[in-house]
Amino acid sequence: MNRDIAAYNREQVSPWKLICSRLAKEIDAGLSSVESKIWHGAPVWFLDGNPVVGYVVLKSCVRLLFWSGGSFEEPSLTPEGSFKAAEARYTSTTQINSRELKRWLKKAKAIQWDYKNIVKRKGKLVRLK
């Protein structure tokens, strides 16, 4: 696990610490050999420089965000923002469905919108792959 992400997880209070550690472990397993780092203050995983998944601790939960998740056609993911992102929110590790998360991570590899170049394209998203 990326040491900065491990440090981020250790800094959290329970139950957020447990949720973050579990998410990081499962994301690392599902997206092996990809870049991960703290980006805009939160753990994020990238494929070819494009953000695909990350999480952040909020006051009331841990939010798991898939940048292209709105295109996954997954009822458990809620649309987020005005682009193609979708999220799941957790208040307990028991809410994390490993099989579901593995499926989402597989879709994150296959379905991507080009967030890396969104500024260069003046806010226009283009589908990759």
Report on this structure.
This protein has a single domain, classed as Aspartate Aminotransferase, domain 1 (Alpha-Beta Complex), CATH 3.90.1150. Helix 1 packs antiparallel against helix 2. The mean pLDDT is about 95. It has a 6-stranded antiparallel β-sheet, with helices on one face. It has a two-stranded antiparallel sheet with strand order 7-8. It is about 30% helix and about 25% strand. The chain has about 130 residues and is α+β, with helices and mostly antiparallel strands. It starts with a helix and ends with a strand.
Q: Strands, helices and their partners?
A:
Blueprint lengths: L2 H9 L4 H15 L4 E5 L2 E6 L2 E8 L4 E5 L11 E2 L6 E5 L7 H13 L1 E2 L13 E2 L1
Antiparallel strand pairs: 1-2, 2-3, 3-4, 4-6, 5-6, 7-8
Features:
129 residues, alpha+beta, Aspartate Aminotransferase, domain 1, two-stranded antiparallel sheet, globular
Low-confidence stretches: none
- What is the global morphology? globular
What is the name of the CATH class? Answer: Alpha Beta
CATH architecture designation: Alpha-Beta Complex
Helix content: 25-40%
Using only C-alpha atoms, the radius of gyration works out to: 14 Å
Order of helix and strand elements from N to C terminus: HHEEEEEEHEE
Task: Please tell me the overall pLDDT.
Answer: 93
Looking at the structure, the CATH topology is: Aspartate Aminotransferase, domain 1
Strands of the biggest beta sheet: in what spatial order? 1-2-3-4-6-5
Strand segment count:
8
Query: What would you call the structural class?
Result: alpha+beta
In whole angstroms, how far apart are the ends?
27 Å
Describe the largest sheet: 6 strands, antiparallel
What is the number of independent domains? 1
Strand content: 25-35%
Treating each run of at least 4 consecutive H or I residues as one helix, how many helices? 3
